[in-house]
Amino acid sequence: MDGGKIMIKKTMDTLAGLPMTLIAGFFLLLDLIPHLCGQNEFWQNCGLWFDPAWVTVLISGIPLLYLAIWRLIHNPGISKISSALLISIAMAAAIAIQDLFAAGEVAFIMAIGALLEERTTLRAKQGLHKLMSLTPTQGRRIRDGKEEMVPAEMIQQGDLVRILPGETIPVDGVIVDGKTSVDQSIMTGESLPVDKEATEEVFCGTLNCFGAIDIQATRTGEDSSLQKLIQMVQQAEEKQAPMQRIADQAASWLVPVALLIAVAAFVTTKNVVTAVTVLVVFCPCALVLATPTAIMAAIGQASRHGVLIKSGEALEQLGKADTMTFDKTGTLTFGCLAVSDVVLLDSSIERRDFLMLAASAEAKSEHPLGKALVAKAKEEGISLLESEDFTMAAGKGIQAKVKGRVLLCGNEKWLLEHQLALDCSAKEIQDRLRSQGKATLWVAEDGCCLGIVALSDVLRPQAAEVVRQLQKMQMECILLTGDNCMTAHYFAKQAGVNEVWAELLPEEKVHRIEALRQQKRVVCMVGDGVNDAPALKSADVSVAMGSIGSDIAIEAASIALMSDDLGKLLYLKRLSKATVATIKFSITLSMMINFTAIGLSLAGLLNPTTGALVHNAGSCFVVLIAALLYDRKFD
Questions:
Q1: The whole model's pTM is what?
Q2: Which one of 31, 99, 327, 540 is the catalytic residue?
């Protein structure tokens, strides 16, 4: 039984393929020439016992009839009535009135439309195909000091894997030895290789460009970043946009309407040719094709730019969005502290010596402020000294001896505990730095403040321009953050965001988004995909920043940017608006063509032959419009 089904499916695919469709077109052309010359009986007069259009009817009509019957049997409810059914009825009616050319033409142009749709879909899937082609098949596993080439699926979490220059990385992992540059363009859209060294992550499917590296596998097989991206794009193909569902439903209802109009036309005009023409021109093919071809073209283009869209609905909702809510840390900012100011309070010490003492004292600290200070000193080429008698008080600061000097590094409370009073000028400096959203680290020795180190998150360089461009697109930008009010307002001002909600817990961010949606706003949430997961889920559409390798980001967000390029938001908004506009234009165009053709049919200006040309040309035109969307520039 299964063998028979497979054979039928192969036969239908063969008949609907390009070679057989070209043959069908050739025979249709043979039948068209006598019609153009006014010699409809030409082939019969030449002794040919059959009309060449029969070949076209059989080649292009049988797959159409098979599809109509299959949907009648397997589709649920009203979806049993499809455009294929109406075309089959129109084809049968044309045969019944012995207009074989019209029957062949309807079937042939539908076959051409299907090929165009398939071509558009295949082009749209190029990003996915490229991802799949990069799936590594083997890797160099190292066990007991021996290197062996094994299938990629045999590599387990924790295995040591060696990647030579020019090889594709077979699993996600962390570099344990070596330095290199990795081409991550297939996943992030970045045009230049990224330098990598020990402790940094690398991802499956990316290309090792220069140095040999050893990595410890962290995610393998179906859990690897590449496989998750492939699964994500595949899921996007299966999820329909609301417009697409509406179009499918409309197509189902248009079939019985077309039959009623055809019957009414026959009763009114007493002309069966008019009724058949109405059936031919009323087919909702263009309406059905409008949304899926545009959505697939847009998703395909986005995947080439390092943007993964999980569904057509997400793309459509982003096009309608009028409010963009941002998380701060990791979204508008880089999400990592860096030394922004070094303020000396003791004139007897130089800046370089001050940084050397403070960083040496903090070298054994695990606190983010201390680590950022040490990183700053190393960045400036300052050699650190070994500290002694290191002690740390959680939430306050550290004490350490450097070159025999006892140093205190910490907050204001830590200094007060050591009977060190701060003068008014020092407090004014601290207040000024805090008003700029900066954290402060005091450095003192022997009852004297040597200076203040200010640390701050860093605004992404393109953040202000992105916000400005979004506002030009009539998007309201809002900052939702768990940071304190002063810090939130400082960064919001830098980015040009006017509305700020600060000191929010994750559930409070959800409440804010829900309140915006109750105001009939369409909300897009942009976050880092980890601590913002509840807010990402609650928005109409959500975008996860730099989510490469992040399971939570892929699960929570409806769109994922595979790099930290905030400018991709502008690309996404333009793409989504263009997609929605394309769908609306195509649907409007198809309906206008249909109703105009019905009017011309009822007026007797179209017959089945010319009606099929008018209607199905519109269907092909809709597919071509979607194909153009794939190659448009939105940067």
A1: 0.64
A2: 327
